[in-house]
Amino acid sequence: MAILDNDQFTDVIDDVRLDSPGPSTTQPESFGDAEHNQYNREIITSPDSLIVTSWNCAGSYSDVTAFLEVRRGKSDVIFVQEIPYKHIRNVQSTTNASGDAAWYPPKAAGWEYLDQYADGPKCADKKLLPTVMCYVASSLLASNPKLMTHVVNHRDAALISLTIGKRPYYLLGVYQKPGRAEYERAIRYLTTRHNLPKLDALVGDFNLHQENLQSS
After folding, report:
1. Fewest Cβ atoms nearer than 10 Å: which of 28, 68, 101, 122?
2. What one-character DSSP code corresponds to residue 141?
């Protein structure tokens, strides 16, 4: 299983390429002009060329849209932490005369986002919406990407499956807020999920140092 923690590097965006004997080089790249948008790419050779990217966007709606544009054709799957939402409109409600607020994540051509509200508007309380969003390149829609909420149903974690060349991939993205209590919230939940499939990649912003991740 490939493990990728944003905090293992000095910056906040990282890539992992699956099914490889190991990493080659880590090379710096940049996105935009903001200092927090400097990042490293962990390049791992693989015949399957499935590139999974992890990024904490710090809640910037416009940055996510721009990043998706930049990464089109460069990433296959992107897990974004601290994903922002916008109140686009209100939708009809049986309990609220003014309607329920509908919240939507950023979108961009060439990408499809996966979450439990994908088939309808985001009518839940904004504070309860997922902090992790998974985007899959439109070119991979034939691989039947699915959010596996029947296995992992938590706002700080997203488990997806997709099939490429008859080979199933299971990818898990996680966001851990700083602080012991916040850390334990998602981790304790995941440790109770005894039906987790064998993961091909565990990525995210764990707010842990590299040595802590490796010893866990």
Report:
1. 28
2. G
Domain ranges of the chain: 2-215
Q: Is the pTM of this model over 0.85?
A: no
Report the alpha-carbon distance of residue 43 to residue 184 in Å, rounded: 31
Percentages helix, strand, coil for the chain, rounded to the nearest 5?
Answer: 20, 40, 40
Report phi then psi at 172, rounded to 5. Answer: -125, 125
Nearest to 81 by CA among 215, 206, 166: 206
Token pair in block for residue 216: 């866990």
- Per residue in 102-147, pLDDT tens? 888 999 999 999 977 654 556 667 778 889 999 999 989 999 999 9
For the segment 124-133, what is each residue's pLDDT rounded down to a tens digit?
677 788 899 9
Helix, strand or coil for residue 198?
coil
Distances from the Cα of 121 to the Cα of 85, 147, 181, angstroms:
12, 17, 31
Q: Tokens for 165?
A: 């060349």
**Alpha-carbon span 129 to 115, nearest angstrom:** 10
Structure letter (DSSP) for residue 47:
S
